[in-house]
Automatic annotation (TrEMBL):
Keyword Signal among UniProt keywords: yes
Domain of life: Bacteria
Native source organism of the sequence: Leptospira kirschneri serovar Pomona
Transmembrane segments: 12-32
Record key words, sorted: Isomerase, Membrane, Rotamase, Signal, Transmembrane, Transmembrane helix
Class in the EC hierarchy, top level: isomerase
InterPro entries according to UniProt: PPIase_dom_sf (IPR046357), PPIase_PpiC (IPR000297), PrsA_foldase (IPR050245), Trigger_fact/SurA_dom_sf (IPR027304)
One Gene Ontology MF term: peptidyl-prolyl cis-trans isomerase activity
Residues making up the signal peptide according to the UniProt record: none
Protein name in UniProt: peptidylprolyl isomerase
Domain PpiC, chain residue ranges per copy: 130-243
Reaction equations catalysed: [protein]-peptidylproline (omega=180) = [protein]-peptidylproline (omega=0)
Its EC number(s): 5.2.1.8
Length: 279
């Protein structure tokens, strides 16, 4: 049978075919320079820099999605010319030093490089075992903080503040209506800090449910705090904060990756430091 015959293909035939193919490609490049570009991954070369096909087609797709008219040959040509002009402007901007002197451009470059570094090294989604282990060793990050529902009375003199504190402790109420506005709901200390300031919040953190503070001086005002409800902080279970754990894990891994990259970059770079004195 035909397939049963021993067929011997001599190596020189492969060499000859390869040489012929290479010759044809070179001939196409000489006779039709524009065709040579189409055989590569680029659509144009601008002063030694290449515009890639994927960038060209991405721009073309964006234009076609915004237009109801079909893409014509003129549109394709215009897209390529726009990319060429954009590349020329970028090159000119680099020549003028904009990348180093313009703070906005520098910031954009830094953000893009950081994102690239992190994306390359933190691309895989962490598995449940990794997240549970991270949660186990970082429980404090996911603690639910204590929340308070309070009433706060303020007076301009200490004597009146002492009287209010005594009334609240003995009768549970006071005739004073000079009350600081606090939302009538449970709030964490971080939020109460916005309303009361650090002096009052520092004392509040040591009070229990139902307790009343002594007068607290903050600036020229005396405050008295009564805690109606205290919801203690607690450690949530893993499943209820899984998304937060994953976000924190990825953030930390990205920060660590960036730090290691920068340390390596400093090691292989020539850096001279000349820190000004504080004189």
């Amino acid at each position: 049978m035909f397939f049963g015959k021993n067929i011997v293909i001599r190596p020189k035939y492969f060499l000859g075919a390869g040489a012929l193919f290479g010759f044809l490609l070179a001939l196409i490049g000489l006779l039709f320079p524009e065709k040579e570009i189409l055989l590569s991954d680029t659509v144009a070369e601008v002063n030694g820099n290449y515009i890639r096909k994927d960038e060209y087609f991405r721009t073309l797709t964006a234009i076609s999605s915004d237009s109801k008219n079909p893409i014509t040959e003129e549109t394709r040509t215009n897209v390529l010319e726009r990319l060429i002009e954009e590349e020329l402007l970028v090159q000119r901007g680099l020549e003028l030093g904009f990348a180093r002197e313009d703070r906005l451009i520098r910031a954009s470059i830094v953000r893009a490089v950081i994102q690239s570094i992190i994306s390359e090294n933190v691309s895989e989604k962490p598995n449940v075992l990794e997240l549970r282990s991270y949660f186990l060793f970082n429980r404090d990050k996911f603690l639910k903080t204590s929340r308070y529902q309070v009433a706060v009375y303020q007076q301009s003199d200490e004597v009146s503040a002492v009287r209010i504190s005594k009334e609240l402790r003995e009768t549970g109420s006071t005739k004073s209506n000079n009350v600081s506005y606090i939302p009538n709901t449970l709030l964490p200390l971080s939020k109460l800090l916005d309303y009361l300031g650090p002096d009052v919040v520092l004392v509040l953190g040591n009070l229990k449910s139902g307790e009343v503070s002594d007068p607290i001086k903050s600036g020229e005002i005396f405050f008295v705090v009564k805690v109606f409800v205290l919801e203690p902080g607690s450690t949530p279970d893993f499943d209820s904060v899984k998304e937060e754990v994953e976000a924190s894990y990825i953030q930390e891994k990205g920060d660590r990756t960036l730090r290691e990259y920068l340390d390596r970059l400093k090691t292989v770079s020539k850096i001279k430091r000349s820190l000004p004195t504080s004189d």
